[in-house]
Amino acid sequence: MLRLVAACPASCVVCTKDVTLCHQLTYIVAAPVTTRVLIITDGYLSSIQSTNLSLLFNLALLSLSRNDIEDVQEDALHGLPKLRTLLLGHNHLPSAALSERTFGGLRGLRVLVLSNNALCTVRGAWFRHTRGLTRLQLDGNQIANVTAASFGGSRLHSLRHLDLSNNFISYIGKDAFRPLPQLQEVDLSRNQLAHLPDVFTPLKQLTLLSLDKNLWSCTCDLHPLARFLRNYLKSSAHTLRNAPDLSCQPPSPGAAARSLLRLSDSNCDSKATSLTLATKDRSPLLPGQDVALLTVLGFAGAVGLTCLGLVIFNWKLQKDKTNEHTSENLCCRTFDEPPCAHEARNYHAEGYCNCHLTQENEIKVMSIVGSRKETPLLQENSHQATLASESTALDESFRNLKEKERGEDSTFFCLDGRLPQSGCSEPPGNTASFNEAGLLARCCPKRAEKLRN
User: At a CB cut-off of 8 Å and minimum separation 6, what does 303 contact?
Assistant: First the structure.
């Protein structure tokens, strides 16, 4: 708890009814009620509490710089209705130490200095009740992004000077400065800006702009800003600080730097265009969540591969069944296949197999049979010709039997699992063919015996 001291300590340089100036204190001195200026620097206050300044209602300037302040109570400044300037620079104030109520009672505040603290973000709610603020200094902090929410709802319609230099700003939203229509001076030097949209066109009162000491990249994303700057400098009332040093680096290493003001559609690097996105706070994954996610993805991939394999297997199975069904329905025997073997193969075939030799083939086969005793065949084809003649002679005998002996009982059976043949009656003039073929004795022994008798 900080103590209040009635007497002016020895470390105070000035102690009058209007001004009190002290340094290296661990407390806030109890200055007179008539004090209008209170300056306490290079001390060790660590915190500003509500009881420290409650009696200084005439105070117009309060400077508590360089005091290692880490916290400000919400109502610590509410008893200062006449305060115009508040200097809290070079302390250790984080963003969490400030709230909407911190500056809520300072309706007459004109200058607020929060330079060189530990602020990571800027919130418009901090300035909701400081409508008369004309200068805001946020330089030397750890601010990384300036978005529409940074000054949205702040009601800083009178703000003229904004200092955001010497931060870590890499992103500025397109509408970030729209709630600040009266801005005349903006300092964004010494940041990490590589790309920046044209955020300054809505600022009709802008007369001083500082953009040097950034990491500008010579890409086409920067062209809108370069076009604004060229038009901005056409007026003698506008000042672009350190304009000759305002250059951008090309993406390829070793290339010469180019002037940002000369960047255009024709000479900007379109291949390396990239957008800088605002960093959003995201809660980290819990321990084990990444492993669980990988497990789920792996299981889903295995299931997908299994389903794909089943689909391919089913397709092949259906294809094989179709081929099998097609082969089962083939009833016509080959040229060199014996009749009984052909009938056994087609035992399960449905319908009547109307397999006849074509006229051309029949002429060829009959010519071979007729000339068998006169013209010897080549040795290498003798066996195939014999089989062909036997099959043809048998088929011709069967056709003649069907036409001439329809009334006879011509049905017989091939033994040992052979199928019924369509006729084994003796056709006139075809006995020689049956004997030559040698098939009648094998398939129809009784009929062959009758013919020999």
Answer: none
